[in-house]
Every structure is written in structure tokens, then in C-alpha cells.
């Protein structure tokens, strides 16, 4: 069985998905499977994935029966995952070649249930925009409530340490997952190395800051069941950090 299962939802990314897959195939660490759950794309995305999978059986296409959004697609991939480690990569983002190797070594050294790395943003033409998004060395549950540090494409979960993994069908389902792991008493550890490229697209699900803010507030109140006062306190810190992260230097 592969050591790392890579969880990727896809939807109408025919112009980008091959490059994302290539960034995985270029990893210096090769003991992985890439599980791409396609959410009923209407373009050539599934065919591109299937064609690559015929040449590289580590790349596996999962076809969703109906369009249900990223959370359900991620869960479909998790349900098929065989690896001890789950790494998350969206279908328009990229990894640098040493990402898995460096993060695995780091996660093992820290005995981390959840780890994450620094990254840079790119636009639709692969031009790097803005500064390096650095990350804190560690985050507890309470600290993560106020932080935006764990970007999906940088996250890795050790299932043997973290325990059961399940996505919630919420906006920012990834944030919900990180919180659920840390709420069990675990600490997330950050590797402050530039290992990934987050693509900013106007059409991406999480690209609208007002909607993102609403999702986070709903998580505080409806998922984590925080009091109004604690929600407001956490939201103020989260909003400030989100604004700083979005700035381009």
C-alpha cells in the first residue's frame, strides 16, 4: 500500500489538472497514490485524468454520481485512500518537487497528527504574486480558531495519530477538519519552507473574502458551538490575519 494518499477534488479544470498531476509525479518521494474525485465536470477534466491514470496507475479517477461540492468529493477520495498519511492538493494548485519528502520527514520527527508548510501564491499564468506566506511553528485548537495558517495544499494528516478523518459538508470543510483533529488534544506543526504554489483564480470556490468570512463565522457558531463573545473575539483575529495574508508585497 502507498504511504501517502493525496486527496484532490476536481471540477472543470481541463486547462490546469494535468499540471497539478505533473507536480505530484515530479515529487522526489514516489510512494504515493493520487485520488482525484471529479465532481461531475462538464469539460475534459475526467478524460485527462483517466488518460494519465492509464500510464501511471498511481493516479486514480473517482467519478462522483452527482455534483456535491468539494467536501463530498474529498470524502469520496478519503474513503478510497490506502495510505497512512493524507495530503491535500486542490486541482489547480501545485507542489514543488521536494514537498512530500521534506514534510514527511518533518511530520515523523514531530510525531505530528497534522502538519503544514509555507507557500507562495501564483496567478493563472503561473506568475508568482506577493510574498512568501510563512507559517507559525505550532498551533493548538484555540490558536487555530484565530488563524488562517493551514492552507489546504500544504496540509498532511497522519491517520495513525490523528484518529478518524471525516469532512463536514460546510464551506471551509478543510478548516473544519483541522479543528476536529486539534480539538482531540493534538498540536499542528508548521514547516516554514516554501514547498507549494496556491493558485488564485477568480472562479475558485474560496476566492471571495466576504463569503469566506461568512463561512468562518458559521463554523464558529454552528459547528464549534462557540459563544457569541468567543466567536467575535476569534473572528476579529481571524479577519486581521486573513487581510494580512491577502496583501501582496
Automatic annotation (TrEMBL):
CDD domains given in the database record: Glyco_tranf_GTA_type
Pfam families linked: Glycos_transf_2
Annotated Gene3D superfamilies: Spore Coat Polysaccharide Biosynthesis Protein SpsA, Chain A (3.90.550.10)
Species this chain originates from: Bradyrhizobium diversitatis
Coiled coil region boundaries: none
Every Glycosyltransferase 2-like domain range: 5-135
InterPro entries according to UniProt: Glyco_trans_2-like, Nucleotide-diphossugar_trans
Protein name as catalogued: Glycosyltransferase family 2 protein
